[in-house]
Specification:
Elements (H helix, E strand, L loop, with lengths): L1 H13 L2 H7 L2 E2 L2 E2 L4 H28 L2 H48 L8 H12 L7 H9 L10 H7 L3 H43 L4
Antiparallel strand pairs: 1-2
Helix pairs in contact: 1-3, 1-8, 2-5, 3-4, 3-8, 4-5, 4-8
GO biological process, one term: adaptive immune response
GO molecular function, one term: lipid binding
Subcellular location: Basolateral cell membrane; Membrane
């Protein structure tokens, strides 16, 4: 059940409309940075393997098989090690993921402002960012006044005052998007780790109980 929940959360994060709209973009021949998906794929793999390993442990407990319970314990140790490694990778790269996406956005934004922007897809990329995240412009002076003089790039509001007051910078929105998603991944990883620790303890207790049983 825990494996199924983790797999469901991971698939939801993988197919979330905001991240897929942004991370599937292509600027010329350059693909949007999709390092974020590495953590998602690890979570999907862990969830799927947990479901299989959980079935193995359940069957081993029903059959009172030391061999199956020992295999179950070994698989859990390997999964736990992989999860710790993925957690360390995520902690190291948590700021880099948002930074790479912001750099990709800035490149598209510069192309969209060029006179020959019709010859590249910078404008389309920027508009996708703006519409998906409800933002306009990067975190600088140009970004602050962009809604006023480039309304063709920004989400339209009812009035100029609303445009000034309600439009956020895309750098801020990108940070919020990925920090929120990485926060969910972190919670899922911690929950899985705690469950795995209890599973390892209980499987060893059960295995030792079977070994010491007077029936055998």
């Amino acid at each position: 059940l825990a494996g199924g929940i983790i797999l469901g959360v991971a698939l939801w994060l993988r197919h979330d409309s905001q991240t897929t709209n942004i991370l599937y973009l292509q600027l010329g021949d350059k693909q949007a940075p999709n390092t974020f998906y590495v953590g998602i794929y690890i979570l999907i793999a862990v969830g799927a393997v947990m479901m299989f390993v959980g079935f193995l442990g359940c069957y081993g407990a029903i059959q009172e098989s030391q061999c199956l319970l020992g295999t179950f314990f070994t698989c859990l140790v390997i999964l736990f090690a992989c999860e710790v490694a993925a957690g360390i990778w995520g902690f190291v790269n948590k700021d880099q993921i948002a930074k790479d996406v912001k750099q990709f956005y800035d490149q598209a934004f510069q192309q969209a402002l060029m006179a020959d922007s019709e010859t590249n897809n910078g404008r389309a990329v920027v508009k996708t960012f703006h519409e998906t995240l409800d933002c306009c412009g990067p975190d600088n002076a140009i970004g602050a006044v962009t809604p006023l003089w480039r309304d063709d790039l920004c989400p339209k509001k009812d009035s100029i005052l609303k445009t000034i007051l309600e439009t956020s910078s895309c750098h801020k929105k990108i940070d919020e998007l990925f920090s929120g998603k990485l926060y969910l991944i972190g919670i899922a990883a911690i929950v899985v780790a705690v469950i795995m620790i209890f599973e390892m303890i209980l499987s060893m207790v059960l295995c030792c109980g079977i070994r010491n049983s007077s029936v055998y």
